[in-house]
């Protein structure tokens, strides 16, 4: 496999930096806008992304890569500057979400399978042309009384592997994201159940990646943290979550993987930051750990922006603060006091 894949993966994992996931599909960004009573228009989606990418201090200092949708990859800021040029100016690698979403799995298990493999080779060639250095595919794993099933874990792992090898063929670093949901329905599972399912999913995912011939040195893993379901009464400490997550990863993620960048998965902003920092204070890990957060980087900035360009500066300040806190966490140096002091 080419040296450049490894170089891109390592640049994404630059110490003290992480990834901004700004690849909400039209449906998902619509849900976020809905919460602040904004219509889901092309212009507002553009303004919102322009607010984020134009936060130049945050982008230059704390963000190594941004995951975009196809719409944003091809889009321009209000003054006509392509977003790709704004990112290039900040030395941020553009990435692209290439899956077509998670759809109900046949059967009545409440599970989902991610679609988007048909025609992916052609799309990837086009994205590479447009300058995408990395890509993302998200598999969703549901925990309920009868799920996950072996069938669903295998189907999702297989799709992730098919996607990953096609990315590498196109010179694009695949970010492999198998998300064991903690904020799904019914969401009452224990932390230990999440640990067991996460381990099983990672084991199957790496088995399929190897079978497909994926070069593990030219990919990144984007996993969930090990957490109880959102409706569980269990309240583990930050240190317990960190310890169990690192244990599960060490048992199932090969050392050849150049980095792990977590999703936030519906945790509060501070929880996502605290957990990352605590994991980075644990020694003896073969890979660096950073963030690839969507909501936990954007929540406050989205509310501060509220659909108005005149709020760009205030929203950018809020985003910059969260990015800085997570950059500190990526080095195990975040504290609650620093977060509050700002
Ligand atoms: P969250 O951090 O909001 O979970 O989003 C990250 C992501 O990219 C999910 O696919």
TrEMBL record:
<dbReference type="GO" id="GO:0004332">
    <property type="term" value="F:fructose-bisphosphate aldolase activity"/>
</dbReference>
<protein>
    <recommendedName>
        <fullName>fructose-bisphosphate aldolase</fullName>
        <ecNumber>4.1.2.13</ecNumber>
    </recommendedName>
</protein>
<keyword id="KW-0456">Lyase</keyword>
<dbReference type="Pfam" id="PF00274">
    <property type="entry name" value="Glycolytic"/>
</dbReference>
<comment type="pathway">
    <text>Carbohydrate degradation; glycolysis; D-glyceraldehyde 3-phosphate and glycerone phosphate from D-glucose: step 4/4.</text>
</comment>
<dbReference type="InterPro" id="IPR000741">
    <property type="entry name" value="FBA_I"/>
</dbReference>
<dbReference type="InterPro" id="IPR013785">
    <property type="entry name" value="Aldolase_TIM"/>
</dbReference>
<keyword id="KW-0324">Glycolysis</keyword>
<comment type="similarity">
    <text>Belongs to the class I fructose-bisphosphate aldolase family.</text>
</comment>
């Amino acid at each position: 496999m080419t040296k450049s894949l490894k170089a891109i993966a390592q640049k994404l994992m630059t110490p003290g930096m992480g990834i901004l996931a700004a690849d909400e599909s039209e449906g998902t960004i619509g849900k976020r806008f809905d919460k602040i009573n904004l219509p889901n228009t092309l212009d507002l989606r553009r303004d919102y992304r322009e607010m984020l990418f134009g936060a130049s201090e945050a982008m230059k200092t704390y963000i190594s890569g941004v995951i975009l949708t196809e719409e944003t990859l091809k889009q321009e800021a209000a003054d006509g500057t392509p977003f790709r040029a704004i990112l290039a100016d900040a030395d941020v690698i553009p990435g692209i979400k290439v899956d077509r979403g998670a759809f109900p799995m046949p059967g009545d298990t409440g599970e989902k399978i991610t679609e988007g493999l048909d025609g992916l080779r052609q799309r990837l060639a086009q994205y590479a042309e447009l300058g995408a250095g990395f890509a993302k595919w998200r598999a969703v794993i549901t925990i309920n009384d009868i799920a996950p099933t072996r069938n669903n874990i295998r189907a999702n792992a297989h799709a992730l592997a098919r996607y990953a090898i096609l990315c590498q063929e196109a010179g694009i670093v695949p970010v492999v994201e198998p998300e064991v949901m903690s904020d799904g329905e019914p969401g009452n599972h224990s932390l230990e159940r999440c640990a067991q399912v996460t381990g099983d999913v990672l084991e199957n995912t790496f088995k399929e990646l190897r079978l497909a011939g994926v070069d593990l040195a030219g990919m990144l893993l984007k996993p969930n943290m090990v957490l109880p379901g959102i409706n569980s009464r269990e309240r583990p400490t930050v240190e317990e979550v960190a310890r169990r997550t690192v244990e599960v990863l060490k048992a199932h993620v090969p050392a050849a993987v150049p980095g792990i960048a977590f999703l936030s998965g519906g945790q509060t902003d501070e929880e996502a930051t605290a957990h990352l920092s605590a994991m980075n204070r644990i020694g003896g890990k073969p890979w660096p750990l950073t963030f690839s957060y969507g909501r936990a980087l954007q929540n406050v900035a989205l509310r501060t922006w509220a659909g108005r360009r005149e709020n760009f500066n205030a929203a950018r300040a809020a985003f910059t603060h969260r990015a800085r806190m997570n950059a500190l966490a990526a080095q195990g140096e975040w504290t609650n006091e620093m977060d509050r002091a700002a």
